[in-house]
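Dear support,

Our group has been running a series of protein-ligand predictions, and this particular one with zinc ion is the one our PI (initials K.S.) wants archived with full inputs and outputs. We had some confusion internally about which version of the output was final, so please treat the block below as the authoritative record. The input we submitted was:
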Amino acid sequence: MEPKEDFKRVEDMALTPVTEIDIRELAEIFDELDVYMSVYLPTASREDEAANRAFVDARRRAIEVALPQDLKESFGETMAMVDDHLFWRPVPGERGRIVFASAPHRLLHVYRIGIDPGRTMVLDTSPFLLPLAKLRDDYMDYGVLLLDSKEARLFCVRSDVPLEMNHLSTDLMNKHKKGGWSQMRFNRLRKGAIKSFLSEVVEDVQESCSRHKTRGIVVAGPGDAKNQLVEMLPAEMGKKVLGIVDLSIDTPEKNIVEVGDEIALADERARSIERAEELRAEIRKGGPAVRGVEATRDALSTGRVNVLVLLKNASVPGWICERCQLLEARKKPQETCPTCGGPTSPVDVVEELYELAERTGAEVEFVEEDACLASSEGVGALLRY
Ligand SMILES: [Zn+2]
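Confirmed final output from the archive:
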């Protein structure tokens, strides 16, 4: 499928959370020819910039040599289109850049992101999405609620960039002088004031969480207010608490993200281990699950996959027919497709399976390590039926 007209997205200055990039739309796009360029670069430091220039130059030469004559011109045009965008000065907080481009299809996407995406440059028949997909799996948005008994700050952390959504505070009992009350009465009033402040915070958090799709929320702060708040959360919200940590109320944003990341990433790891276990269990008892490239490919192409489970480092060489999308693993491409006579090209079969999953609305889970998956080339799927 060709991209929609004027498929051009260039954010001059703003950072884009990886969760905001429309990967589904990108997964729809492909051509019979190698006309889509995908570039991932780290942009955090000066050294990165020098290394990026050397890397892009070397890749440009290597791609050019390998291209057939009739594609060299469009490749040159695509390079001219992206050149500036690759080496723009980074904006504050930017740690990486992702560019998808094709001059023949007038496609140009430039994303500045807050995380390091590694260094990749690929010219292919479709945008290369696996690195982005892995980032999205690790860096799903999450919330951090930092609070004590009289102040609460709610952050949404998107691709390592913290946005302060809300700041609530109360002066509790300061408007009344302690004098004149018995200690007991003062304590009782104070407790009541804290409780009503915390219920206000709960409402706030609920409202924010219903507006944003997040992995969950980290509750942090000094003292006991955070535990009190967690107890007050409705059951549905309670399930979204990723962790409770001790943290000073004036912790700088950078450290809030560090602490939050550790907890959010641990949660992501636990979820992928659960998925891998579920897959193993279904396979053991002959339930709706498959493993291995061929079985997974067939399930995907008939729309039966609920969750595609991939080992993070999985990579299987093979070829695809650029016309009918026939996909074969572990074989050198045939000159033309045996089914439809269309042009073929060598591919990483895992990338193709990923794109197929996106197009058919399947969920995708990346797993760090798993012996069962490893024995089936890192590929498996939980099926709808
Ligand atoms: Zn074909």
